[in-house]
């Protein structure tokens, strides 16, 4: 049988090329223990909603479970609350697939002081979440420096950045942000041509549609996009969270798509979104994402979960901005994960129009 399989793979290389694997993405879970909500919109995640999502996830093999930041409730925490909440989350997430590697990014609400990463935050986060996957101590070295690290498996390097340092309100942390970018460029420069890279982080670049404000410091965003342009051929995925919406930012070069930043929706409903998580399917050989399944619930269905699938990962509908595009209209509908009319923080309707396309693009 093994010989026959070998002959089939040799004769039909596309057969092996088409093999897919999946990653589970749990972003912005914002678990608030010891509380129960009568409604879960514009609130943190109570244990009943969190466990409902965990129980809805289909058993399977996930090489990686990626958590793009904000595991904790909003607005600052004691060290004990951090430890207790991290332990609760990791216990239940690891039970989904005990062999999965769990890769969390540091979020702005995972810090002891809101939006401000410090040495004590790095210490608690590392010991609670990263120590079990740190085989040789390399993760500890870089994470204690600035909250970033790399996890390598065969020909895939998953680089987990700390973009809290990049935030507009953290201009005083710009030297640490530039040091992180220098490290990122060095790591990318050492990779071989046959290697692939996934970049994972919490706060995405560009304009936040909900708050209508720039997320990163301009100089840091410019330096970052120059790095992406240089190594775009190696980068097969950029994955962020923070906005709680199912969204994307497109890094553009001369009108062509250089690298999309896929933004995962949040389980937390802080921005009026439906609670959601995602399963992303990727090609085992080239590590490119080719399908995203989003699972969501709402407050009127008694925690019944629904789903939709997105495959248009070339994002041509955004590049062309065709107002008659049914894909574009559906993308905006799903932005808040089928919540209904989509609005920004100031109450303005977010619609499929030129402004939506413009704020989707990062053109340098």
UniProtKB/TrEMBL annotation:
One of its GO terms (molecular function) is hydrolase activity. Keywords: Glycoprotein, Hydrolase, Signal. Residues 1-18 form the signal peptide. This is Uncharacterized protein. It comes from Mucilaginibacter gossypiicola.
